């Protein structure tokens, strides 16, 4: 049992960045899937695609899961939807674990893994909007709105706009920043080899050098990744200033003294739980609860208000951290 636990820990990016629920549940299950995929010779990118397919399929079940109007069938469909998203998350864990176990890390795999959450949640959000459009009688009674087709259509369109903002602005931005802060932490903890910290300039150079012929899918995804890294840099001006100062002073960030790297890691470590909250598990649990409570619209409130506030708090703390350590440099 101890050996098993140690084997799972070897597939972590770092214990610093692992969430409690992942350590006790997701990673052990993902590790067993990764072992199976390794024996079958399945590439990590294939596992990522399977994760996306399974996660997207949960949308149909969430769309038809109103127990208020569909009784026990609706409840069962909610549970199936939640189980499918959990299964997708196991595979999302397994792809990275498999890549580290078999040393099959690729640029496309990194991009696919980062995009998987958004790709999965988009149809799920649309399904929740459709469900609200179909089953809105309780909400209309609360608001004193006449239950007419015209009002239902307006309600559905309004929620659709809210879901677009929730998904493409809030969800995407929160995960993008949380991922960046984890990679920054790993960079200062383990160096360039232990992190996937890249700049938009580096990604643009890769994009420019890659021919379209024979690389259509990879180049298309790489274009989105260039924009992804640009948005990360735009959101973190103090960190960019810190990196510039380290390059000027030491020639390369990796040449910074170990004492500086240790101090950055020490101050960055308390922020890692926030980065985990802003990625999958907390978001998924909130979605399960809202759907099982038959209040799917409440999830969008949670993401737009609560998660956005946490994200801004995390951003401000990290920027303050960067300003402090920058000031400490000679």
Structure report:
The structure is a single chain. This protein is mostly helical. It has 14 helices and no strands. It has helices spanning 2-9, 20-40, 44-63, 67-102, 107-134, 137-143, 149-190, 200-209, 216-234, 237-250, 258-268, 272-277, 281-292, 297-328. Helix 2 packs across helix 4 (67-102) and helix 10 (237-250) runs parallel beside helix 14. It is globular.
Shape: globular
Unreliable spans are: none
In angstroms, what separates the terminal alpha carbons? 49 Å
Mean pLDDT: 90
Helix/sheet category: mainly alpha
Helix content: over 70%
How many individual helices? Answer: 14
Rg computed from alpha carbons, rounded to a whole number of angstroms = 22 Å
Q: Write the H/E string, N to C.
A: HHHHHHHHHHHHHH
Major sheet attributes: none
* Strand residue content: under 5%
- Strand tally is 0
Q: What is the topology?
A:
Layout: H1 2-9, H2 20-40, H3 44-63, H4 67-102, H5 107-134, H6 137-143, H7 149-190, H8 200-209, H9 216-234, H10 237-250, H11 258-268, H12 272-277, H13 281-292, H14 297-328
């Amino acid at each position: 049992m101890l050996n098993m636990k140690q084997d799972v820990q070897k597939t972590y990016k770092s214990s610093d960045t692992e969430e409690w629920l992942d350590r006790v549940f997701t990673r052990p299950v993902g590790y067993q899937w990764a072992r199976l995929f390794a024996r079958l010779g399945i590439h990590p990118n294939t596992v990522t695609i399977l994760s996306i397919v399974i996660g997207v399929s949960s949308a149909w079940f969430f769309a038809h899961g109103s127990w208020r109007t569909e009784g026990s069938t609706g409840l069962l469909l909610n549970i199936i939807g939640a189980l499918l998203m959990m299964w997708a998350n196991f595979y999302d864990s397994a792809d990275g674990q498999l890549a580290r176990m078999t040393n099959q890390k690729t640029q496309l795999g990194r991009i696919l893994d980062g995009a998987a959450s958004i790709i999965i949640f988009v149809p799920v959000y649309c399904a929740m909007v459709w469900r609200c459009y179909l089953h809105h009688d309780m909400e209309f009674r609360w608001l004193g709105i006449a239950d007419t087709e015209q009002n239902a259509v307006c309600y559905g369109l309004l929620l659709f706009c809210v879901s677009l903002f929730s998904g493409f602005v809030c969800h995407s931005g929160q995960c993008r920043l949380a991922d960046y802060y984890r990679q920054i932490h790993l960079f200062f903890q383990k160096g360039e080899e232990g992190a996937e910290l890249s700049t938009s300039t580096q990604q643009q150079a890769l994009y420019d050098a890659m021919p379209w012929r024979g690389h259509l899918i990879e180049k298309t995804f790489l274009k989105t990744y260039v924009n992804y890294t640009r948005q990360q840099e735009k959101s973190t001006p103090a960190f960019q200033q810190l990196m510039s100062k380290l390059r000027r002073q030491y020639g390369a960030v990796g040449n910074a003294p170990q004492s500086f790297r240790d101090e950055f890691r020490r101050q960055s470590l308390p922020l890692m739980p926030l980065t985990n909250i802003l990625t999958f598990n907390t978001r998924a649990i909130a979605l399960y609860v809202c759907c099982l409570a038959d209040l799917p619209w409440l999830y969008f409130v949670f993401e737009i208000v609560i998660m956005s506030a946490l994200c801004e708090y995390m951003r401000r703390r990290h920027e303050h951290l960067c300003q402090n350590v920058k000031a400490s440099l000679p």
